[in-house]
Amino acid sequence: MNARLPTTAASRVDAVIARAIRQDVQSMHGYAIQPSAGLIKLDAMENPFALPPELQAELGERLGRVAINRYPVQCVGDVVAALSQHIDLPSGAALMLGNGSDELIDLIGLASMHPDGCVLAPLPGFVMYEMSARIRGVPFVGVPLTARFELDEAAMLAAIEQHRPTVTWLAYPNNPTANLWDDGAIERIVTACARHDGLVVFDEAYQPFASRSWLPRMGEFANTMVLRTLSKFGLAGVRLGYLCGDAALVAEIDKLRPPYNISALNCEATLFALEHADEYSRQANVLKAERARLLRDLALLPGTTVFPSEANMILVRVPDSKAAFEAMKARGVLVKHIAGLHPLLANCLRLTVGTPDENTAMLAALASALHDR
Ligand SMILES: *Cc1c(COP(=O)(O)O)cnc(C)c1O
Asked: Tens digits of per-residue pLDDT, 52-81?
């Protein structure tokens, strides 16, 4: 917050905050986004490629024709249909849209907010699972991964037995560790949750870069849903997430969706992107090849430990992550310093896979940061 109203008004506002805003909200921090102006931005798993100019022009024309004077109704149905086809949605399943998958994480948190509610997720994981539970007063149980960031199956099963979570989150692949967990362990965890009629949501934000998806298996396990987003695919600025599951289950969560949560412009841009899915899959292939190059070259840097990745990010451990982060930034490359997120992430940086040139610059910045230590 920068400016305040004149002092007399400001003190009144403070009194209103004290009375009207929840105490826990007053003492919490908002989701921090680090400034990136002038830097090579490799901190947020964005797709680094802009649309080719001719597609930009075509999109501009399409957006110009959208009926922005009307509430978005028909276009939402069109997006649901186009996405269902794009992902080959299993029969009997339904799909609902969110303003980014963050909104859907929040709606699942809202739906599970009852006296028996309990949310469980492995840690370190995506922060929104914990945040959406806590903000609603739903107990959150975090179960640490192993030191190699694999699921600790015994600890997960014990926690499920003890807490009987109503919702369990499995990011597939996980953020920030970028790996896909063992399917055998996952099946046993899903089965353990099913014993208490607990829901398990697979968050597949990184599906465009992963070798496996849970979607084809959703029918085998009635207590599972799959959450995805177009953000990492290449539409982070559009805000479009979707949740798939048994039609009856989706219908329950859909009751909580704010009407008209997806703008007509989001819809049109999404339809356009799906019509050009080949361009996006070409981009994803470049990023996967670049990921392979980075995994190889990062492993050659002295003192670094590189973890396997099935996403458009790579987790690395260096001797001094804070110094490396600052030195890379001084060389114009912004990555994410995540050592503070969880003790298991000590001295870890999370690198987003960028364009070939950006990756070359990132490697050079990290190499010299490590060298100059
Ligand atoms: C980026 C990310 C999301 C959020 O995606 P949006 O659709 O942009 O809100 C959700 N889950 C995971 C694991 C992510 O990394």
From this structure: 999 999 999 999 999 999 999 999 999 999
